[in-house]
Write a structure and sequence with these properties.
Layout (H helix, E strand, L loop, with lengths): L1 H21 L6 H21 L5 H24 L5 H22 L1
Helix pairs in contact: 1-2, 1-3, 3-4
Membrane topology: Multi-pass membrane protein
Keywords: Cell membrane, Membrane, Transmembrane, Transmembrane helix, Transport
Main location: membrane
Amino acid sequence: MHWVALLLAGVFEVVWATAMKQSAGFSRLWPSVLCIAGMLISIGLLSAAMRSLPLGTAYTVWTGVGAVGAFVAGIVFFGEEATAIRFVAAVLIVSGLVLMKIGDQA
């Protein structure tokens, strides 16, 4: 269950980051509200996951899911550049997350 909470925390990190972009510097109400709600949910789920997972693993996976998710959201929703080198970087981040999971079981 702690891994599910951690992955959901990462998803909500993407939600708040995307909403922050849409808020135009917190000048638009509803994206700003969604951003703050996403932050609170993300941190709450991260906190719950850290009850059972090591700090280094939990924080690394949380930020990695958020980073890759924000990368994908940027391409899909904001037309950001989808270059080969950026995809290689995303694959390396995901590879690191997998190794963290494997290392947590060792």
